[in-house]
Amino acid sequence: MIKLTSAAFAALLAAPALAAPLTLTPADPQPAAGDLTPGLAVSYAYPKEVRTLEQADAALRKAKPGPALVGLSYLDGDDGDLTLTSTSHKKVAAEITGYLRFDAAGTFEIDFFSNDGIRVELGGQQVALYDEVHACESAGLQEVEVPVAGWYAIKATYFQRKGTACLMMDWNADGSIGPVPDSAFAYSE
What are the boundaries of the signal sequence (predicted)? Predict the structure, then answer.
């Protein structure tokens, strides 16, 4: 018989439990293939200062559409490179919308990398949140349950303050974690 000290028992109780995967809700109705354009829709705002998602949200009330994103594979570039498809390299807020296609049902791990802040909703669930100025870093691996193959709505709020910028999404669609292909994203015009 194993005996636990009261301190060991308390530590065991305090250990974080593994969270259950977030169950995503497919788009309803599913968009018809002919109604979709490859990539993601994006609107931009250029605030005087942006250090938080709250400031980005406020600026995005006056956002204007920008050139579509091809996907979410914007690697950390050089200081001075334009942020995503915007017209600036600093003080950019972006609202990104569209769909992500899962070709099979199942449990997937997903992750978002950003420089700077990011909040992502996918299939009705918040799957990423990193609300501060930082280098290109992970928002944290998240498990999601995809009940059926198909399109899932995606909405992201992103901001870049200054310096270099990145925005990327990884998943384990084939058993190993890697970039989501641009072909998995689409939006309605």
Answer: 1-19
